[in-house]
Sequence to fold (243 residues):
Amino acid sequence: DLHVISEIASRHSLRVVEDAAPSLGAAIGDARVGSISEMTCFSFHPRKTITSAEGGMVLTDNETIAEHMRVLRSHAASVSDLDRHNADGVIIERYEEPGFNFRMSDLHAAVGLAQLDRLDWLIERRRALAAAYDAAFADLPSVTVPAARRGFFHTYQSYCIVLTDDSPLTREEAMRSLKARGVTTRRGCGAVHLEPFYVKRFGLARLPVSERLSARSIAIPLYPAMSEDEQAYVIEQAHQVLR
Fold:
């Protein structure tokens, strides 16, 4: 709920860097995600709604931040490669802070731009598949479908179900059974604070809601090229495994 988060941040003089990795095209009310926070990060990993094979993008309306990120993405060189190549004389760049090799190649950008033209259709198709899943699982007591809150436009980069207390199987048992039937799944979300690195560094915290969702969520197949027959097969197998 970005408006609530932004209000809390403003009250405490905090800055919001929004991780919107899977949310390209999503909206809250009339505001598209990417236009709400001062900085919004999107991912173009192959699982996302559009992909450039790898890489990502940060949106901001703060020109100072934008210019700083342009410098940081290319090793923090004081002059870009393009400006050096176009210069009449010789320019020797300086490095006044640590930077990164975060440049996107022209080839990757071309792949991403070509898919951007199809974004509306890709989202429409994902939402249609999600609606079919919602209807198919509505009477399955062992499954909770994703929440669709009023005023929030969901793009369904993934479709994650959560197993209820009525589920006959644990999450891992359900995933194994579905895989044996030809339906590949993955965990819906992970509780970062339980990963070994964080436990070692910060100790074991207790976050019961995160832990419950981490233990019970499953991402089931959803992709724009999915046929009605393929989706019907996933639904049938899920009913057989989880009823």
Q: What stands out?
A: The chain is about 40% helix and 15% strand. Residues 114 and 227 are 23 Å apart (CA to CA).
